[in-house]
Amino acid sequence: MVTPDLSMRLGDLELRNPVLTASGTFGYGLEFEPYLKLDELAGFVTKGLSPQPREGNPPPRIVETPAGMLNTIGLQNIGVDAFIHDKLPLLRERDTQVIANVFGENIDGYVEVCSKLDQVEGVAAIELNVSCPNTEEGGMIFGNDPGALATVTAAAREATRLPLIVKLSPNVTDIRVTARAAVEGGADILSLVNTFVGMQVDIERRRPVLKKVCGGLSGPAIRPLAVWMTWQVSQSVDVPLIGMGGISCAADALEFILAGASAVQVGTANFVHPDGSIRVLRELRQWLADRDIATLAELVGAGHPA
Amino acid sequence: MPRDITTAVLANTGLGHGNWLLEFGAPEMAESMRPAQFFMIGIPGAATLLRRPYSVCGLPGTFDDRPAGALQVLYKAVGRGTGLLASLAPGAQITVLGPLGNGFTPPDDPETVPLFVAGGIGSAPFPALTSTLAAGSPRPRMIYGARSAGDLVLADWFAERTEFEATTEDGSAGTTGRVTGPLERMLDEEQQRKLKIYACGPEPMLEAVGKLAVAREVECELSMEAHMACGFGVCLGCVVPVRRAGDGVGYDRVCLEGPVMDAKCVAW
Predict the structure, then answer these.
(1) Which residues of chain A make contact with B251, given a CB cutoff of 8 A?
(2) Does residue B108 lie in a domain region?
(3) pLDDT digit of tens for each residue in chain A (306 aa)?
(4) Per-residue pLDDT reduced to its tens digit, B3-43
(5) Is some CB atom of chain B closer than 8 A to the CB atom of A103?
(6) What are the backbone dihedrals phi and psi of residue A101, each rounded to the nearest 5 degrees, phi first?
(7) What is residue A252's three-state secondary structure?
């Protein structure tokens, strides 16, 4: 029996294991401390941080769907300044990598948040949210247009020395095109995928269930779509990938890793069980030990024919 | 501190008209839980992804002759999640996250008369609240509204322990109509005594009761309901609009800042 090495190196971002949590499903990390030790996770991704606090969208904001859920939270968050002053000092005392998810209503907004995070201790990387389907001001516009995506990525790149992750939207015709644009703009790492746009209709009321009509679909329902996109992107760019979409157990995580991801993010599963991310991690360690696999990194992209 | 446990169903009893009383063992939760706090309950292997929120109905001592460390949940089988729960037999495993949320607060003044207003399955938190009122506090008054007589769940239980009035929309029991008529009358009657309203039920009922309480300057706690994915404050799916300092309106989470909210704070 070996003790497997789960560490992963994604450029300048070193992770002691491949399990992160997805933005918007893990708050600011501290909310989970009654249920798990942040020190056990490789790291987590914060709720999207904007220049100013945002109250988010009117309810109803969520609805369960077959093997998934739709959400239209609308990037409700405390704003980057409150994050830096109220959350980060506490997070610095934890032994985990804090990845700040960043959102701006325009390029200046992205630059402002990136610059502020660049000047403080305790942020391991920045993940650009260019793919939120739930706000009118933008995000999605950057994620869908390769030119705009390269531009916002380049602007963020100038604003920070931290490892820069760009989170790709799946709501595109060919994700390889936006993946390449993000890399050209200066992304060090790509994470994929954000939620798929969808809706549910209340047939008795004859109205959309969600107040904002459409929302982002997440959960096991999207996993095959997300694995396929990870597979495609891994053949199209040379930067490390972080895969996500409906991961709730080690087998799910391994699909993404074999498809080419060097790390994964657990998202909706955090809602089902607050220690869902830790469950994935422990199962993964056991899976490797059971098979005498010494180094998880060997499996990254190993699903692709030689 | 909330816990996430797997435990066995001890009993799951049909009360007619699709209403059920679920019982499970959770000794540690039973020690600290308060009325109107809630659980997220899931069924391992079920086709539903998310757990569902259920208010605690019975705490230790609420119902007679129940096993030590057992808690009860009152629910109506209306959707996929509650339908699956109703299919469980004793011995079935469930996952329970709790206690969650803030819960009702007892009256500050021991002379205050608790006034319960329940709508439909919104009667769920009132057995727990009834059984945890301070010894010697005035007998509670209760107005329980439902569509018809069969939906007045545990009506006999309440009738023994409160000054009980029923309203039904179809007139099959109590006064015909909604709870607001009897509530206004009761507020008129009770000019001499201090009241505190506790309400739980459908949103339109909570809105009507809350507005009436604010207009009459009667203290009023509303136990709110919303769809929620997590139940512990992170999905931000369960928000309701609330008044902020000044003229502002923001969103509070039903799961964390609630489910009990002061009627004055909700921005309908």
Answers:
(1) 55-56, 59, 76
(2) no
(3) 678 999 999 999 999 999 999 999 999 999 999 999 999 999 999 999 999 999 999 999 999 999 999 999 999 999 999 999 999 999 999 999 999 999 998 999 999 999 999 999 999 999 999 976 666 555 567 888 999 999 999 999 999 999 999 999 999 999 999 999 999 999 999 999 999 999 999 999 999 999 999 999 999 999 999 999 999 999 999 999 999 999 999 999 999 999 999 999 999 999 999 999 999 999 999 999 999 999 999 999 999 997
(4) 999 999 999 999 999 999 999 999 999 999 999 999 999 99
(5) no
(6) -85, 130
(7) helix
Q: Where are the beta strands (DSSP E) in A176-220?
A: 189-192, 196-198, 201-202, 207-208, 215-218
Q: Does the beta-carbon distance from B236 to A61 stay under 8 Å?
A: yes
Residues B95 and B9 in one domain: yes
Q: How far apart are CA B236 and CA B232, in angstroms?
A: 9
Task: Provide the pairing of β-strand B19-25 with B3-14.
Answer: antiparallel
> Which stretches does DSSP call E strand in B66-140?
70-76, 93-100, 113-119
Chain A: give the shortest CA distance to residue B84, in Å. Answer: 15
| Smallest CA–CA distance from A76 into chain B, residue | B236
CA nearest neighbour of A170 among A198, A144, A149, A205: A144
Interface membership of A25 toward B (CB under 8 Å)? yes
B133 and B215 inside one domain? yes
Q: How confident is the model at residue B248 (pLDDT cuts 50, 70, 90)?
A: confident
Shortest distance, CA A26 to any CA of chain B (angstroms): 6
Please indicate whether, in this complex, the C-beta atoms of A31 and B232 are within 8 angstroms of each other. yes
Instruction: Tell me the CATH number at B74.
Output: 2.40.30.10
Give yes or no: residues B7 and B92 share one domain. yes
For the entire predicted model, the pTM comes to 0.94
* Residue among A220, A271, A275 whose CB faces B229 most closely: A271
| Ramachandran angles phi, psi of A225, nearest 5° | -65, -45
User: Are A109 and A51 spatial neighbours (Cβ–Cβ below 8 Å)?
Assistant: yes
Contact B43/A at CB under 8 A:
no
CA-based radius of gyration for chain B: 18
CB A263 within 8 A of CB A9: no
Domain that holds residue B11: 3-100
Q: How many structural domains compose chain B?
A: 3
Residue from the list B4, B235, B251 with its beta carbon closest to the beta carbon of A55: B251
Q: Where are the domains of chain A?
A: 8-299
User: Mind giving me the DSSP string for A174-189?
Assistant: -HHHHHHHHHHHT-SE
Nearest to B230 by CA among B210, B212, B253, B211: B253
Alpha-carbon gap, residue A289 to A5, rounded angstroms: 10
> Cα-flanking dihedrals φ and ψ of residue A47, to 5°?
-55, 145
What is the CATH topology of the domain spanning A8-299?
A: TIM Barrel (3.20.20)
Q: Is the sign of the CA dihedral B39, B44, B50, B52 positive or negative? A: negative
Cα dihedral B117, B122, B126, B128 in deg (nearest 10): -160
**B175 assigned to some structural domain:** yes
Question: What is the spatial distance between Cα A28 and Cα A63, in angstroms, rounded to a whole number?
Answer: 23
